[in-house]
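Render this sequence as a predicted structure.
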Amino acid sequence: MTGASAADLRLHSVNLGAAIALQIGGRRVLSAIGKRAVWGPVRVGPLGLQGDEQADLSVHGGLDKAVYAYPLEHYDFWRAQRLAHGVSLFDEELPPGFAGENLSITGLLEPDVFVGDELHFAHCVLRVTAPREPCFKFNAVMGFSQAARLMAVHARCGFYLSVAQPGTLEAGETFRLVSGQRALSIAQAIRGKLAKHLR
């Protein structure tokens, strides 16, 4: 167990999206990166949240990447980056789900969560499997070409989860972090992947 209490760890919103065609860099691609918050309990099965879609199952989806969680604390960073890169003329609010996450969470950042840890909710258990590896679709959403690289360099990547115990999730509920082997943190994992790409 970590030192964080369940009261500190909260599910701010549950976000779902449909796969739609987007125009990115002169080409048409299918993506479900656009997620919107929903209210009320959402069913969670082995392959993810009921009502959610994934377009590219090599990067999001399947048993090991069924659900994607992202710390809401990073949204200030992205607002500042969009402003610095001339995407926004003001410090606008970015809605939960803007980064493509299913779960917008608070209280748990990448250096503090490890592959194999579990998030225990009232009616569901999710197991941490891997960091998100951002791609050109994230650049398109954020509006500037260096967004994916910044996500990796600063380890503001969030993490994928498998469904250890199906059930339901609902915005506003708290959860507990139950430690696994704690051999590799999500921050270490994404920086290791970045180092390989830079060789």
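Summary. The mean pLDDT is 91. The radius of gyration is 16 Å.
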